[in-house]
Description:
Layout: H1 8-14, E1 19-24, H2 29-40, E2 44-50, H3 52-61, E3 70-73, H4 77-89, E4 95-98, H5 103-110, E5 124-131, E6 137-142, H6 152-168, E7 175-179, H7 190-203, E8 211-216, H8 218-222, H9 224-229, E9 242-244, H10 248-261, E10 266-271, E11 277-278, H11 286-300
Parallel strand pairs: 1-2, 1-4, 2-3, 4-11, 6-9, 7-8, 7-9
Antiparallel strand pairs: 5-6, 5-10, 10-11
Bound molecules: dephospho coenzyme A.
Dephospho coenzyme A (COD) binds next to helix 5.
Amino acid sequence: MTIHNLDFLMDLCASGRKMTIAVACPYGDDALAAVCAARDRNLVNSVLVGDAEKIRVLAEKDGLSLDGIEIVDEKTDYLAVEKSVKMVSGGDADLLMKGLVKTATLLKSVLNKEWGLRAGSLLSHLFLQEITVMGGRIFGLTDGGMNMYPDLQTKVGIIENAVECYHKIGVACPMIAALAAVEVVNPDMACTLDAAALAKMSDRGQIKGCVVDGPFALDNAVSEEAAKTKGIRSPVAGNADILLVPNIECGNLVGKVMTYLAKERGAGVVLGARKPIVLTSRFDSMETKLLSIALGAVVAR
Length: 301
Ligand code: COD
């Protein structure tokens, strides 16, 4: 399946069982607007967890009706995060969403050993990045949100999470490019060694349900022409669905360049926990937040 934009996530979400999302600290204007838009499109049921008075004032300021949306009053961010995570781990909600609260604060709560959302496997962030140039493409960027400096084994876990998500959104065998600054193995650049090892693990069936190759520089991962110029022969060259970045800085920078400088939309979610966590940047647009809710709900099924 070739996906040209992210609108399919709305249809996919609307076609299945309606999930309930718990939103921790929903104070950013766009987070509230996205929750209201998700209600209007009948995508999810929402529970807002935070200072009820603050939420109502914000909604009124923005002319948003909170009809049909439940509010659980928790005055401090710390308690709101804890309550929302517990709602999801206890089965009162099917997925979690980060509002206006630090990513690390929410993730530490998610990783809580007693009442968090650990499933015994690696948690990682995937951002589906819509690119309107090049005829409309989607690139899964991972991991620019959770794992900071992944080693080889962590990269395998990051790939497995992304592949499971791609299968759920209808891509049977995603092409994965392990990115570096160059497309050759250079012993002085550790990520090129990891990329080559991942490619061989994919060849030998140690990583399943996808094709992994690398190292690739970004240009030859996304452009067939660039790959041809460099003489790279690989099914992944120019056709990557998923871009595995070497570390959190690379992933975060690529995502933010696309969001802020190119004004593209996306959808972000943390995978590998018992339930998905919708995780976008505080200043992401309402549309990106809405698409992220749809993606999270699809993954939650
Ligand atoms: N998957 C599964 N378990 C994990 C993971 C993971 N990705 N990370 C940590 N754990 C487990 C560890 O095994 C351990 O049992 C426990 O959690 C605590 O581990 P620490 O001490 O290494 O982790 P923390 O709590 O100090 O930090 C975990 C964070 C996810 C908060 C940290 O890695 C982090 O801050 N990541 C970056 C988040 C961020 O700032 N993103 C900004 C970009 S939007």
